Amino acid sequence: MMARIPPRRKHSHAGPREISEAISRSARAGDLSALDATVRAARKSNVALNAVNYTAMAMGLARGRDFRRCFEALASMRALNLTPTNATLRVATAACVSWFASKRTSHASATLALQEMVKWFADGGEPRADVRSWNMVLAAFGKLGARRCMSEVLRVMEERGGIAKSVPKPDIISYNTCMSAMKGNVLQALLLFAGLVRGKYAKPDAASYNALLKIAMDDARYLIGLAEPEGTAKDRMVKGSVRFVKAVLKSMQRQKVEPDLRTWTGVLRLLTRTEAETSEVADLVKNAVLEFWFDLRNPSRPSPDLIVSWKGILHTCKVDQTLRNSDIWFTSLAVQCVNFCFCTGGRCPCSGSSSSGNARTWRICGHVHYEFDSLSSQP
């Protein structure tokens, strides 16, 4: 007679480990139905959720575009006095930006929600402060257009960084992020830059100066104000642009910062957008073009900076009268450009497009170079 095999015992409830794994798995997949079922199972089994679980829940709800419940999960976590982690801050920051981008809330509501998250974390967050998470907060305020809040967060990092364990010291990315967000307001960017130069946390790098050059492109009022109050607005903007470029290059030399490809591209775009024909502008443009060619490194492995810079230099030769009347500039540029296209496997910097064969590359470059030849032959 065969012995009877006892039936398997069915587990009436899942343990904390199973609950945590199920929450993380559902959150990563953005499966809100599975996430809700797991949370109900946890309550039925009297399993207390921790900070990691609530953070995963908030991430899953944000991915599922259920922002109301996402912030409710974070509020429950705060009500239970659970310590938020660096991941919690990143999830909350991304949720605020996505909430506003989805057009389901106003600018003020998204900004206020992010402010509350930052205050909560600064007062009692994870003791191992992560500057990358806080830089993400600065970038988020910049996207929301809340420059005052962004500057306030940077000030908190400067004053409490290293003293409060949950607040990190700012780094160069912190300052560059804030300066890049000051679109159309060079004065505010210069105030941040001055704090960077005088500060003790970081020193300016090429990206800092590139941000200033880019912001100056959108602030014609500031450039006009740099020139003497004589002549037309166009002439004053040209003189102001020259003065600003000289100040930037002089500051880079004083701070021992080497210009990169984006620096020279910014200089060229700033100087040539008005089609001015002054000798001072011509000298600066020629110097920038020479420095640009000198800085080309290993064209067989191009970077996005290189592609963007080629577009800038091609645009410069189109609009600048001095370069337009000099055949040697166009001849050298055509050779460099065609060689660059073949070295990059058919990727043309003139248009930023890619092709599978050399014929397409020749057609794109040939069109641009024909246009250059036509310009250079003009009287």
Helix content: 55-70%
| SS elements, strand count | 0
| Strand percentage | under 5%
End-to-end separation in angstroms reads 112 Å
Largest sheet: none
Number of helix segments? 19
Mean pLDDT: 75
The unreliable regions are 6-12, 297-303, 324-331, 341-379
Radius of gyration: 28 Å
Helix/sheet category: mainly alpha
CA-based shape: elongated
Which H/E pattern describes the elements? HHHHHHHHHHHHHHHHHHH
Description:
The chain is mainly alpha-helical and 379 residues long. The chain has a domain at 288-379. 69% of the residues lie in helices and 0% in strands. The protein has 19 helices and no strands. The longest helix has 22 residues, at 233-254. The radius of gyration is 28 Å and the shape is elongated.
Quick recap:
By secondary structure, the protein is mostly helical. It is 69% helix and 0% strand. Helix 5 (86-101) runs parallel beside helix 7 (131-144), helix 7 (131-144) runs parallel beside helix 9 and helix 14 (261-272) runs parallel beside helix 16.
Layout of strands and helices, then pairs:
Elements: H1 16-29, H2 32-44, H3 51-63, H4 67-79, H5 86-101, H6 107-124, H7 131-144, H8 147-160, H9 172-180, H10 186-198, H11 206-216, H12 220-226, H13 233-254, H14 261-272, H15 279-294, H16 304-319, H17 321-324, H18 327-343, H19 358-376
Helix pairs in contact: 1-2, 1-3, 3-4, 3-5, 4-5, 5-6, 5-7, 7-8, 7-9, 9-10, 9-11, 10-11, 11-13, 11-14, 12-13, 14-15, 14-16, 18-19
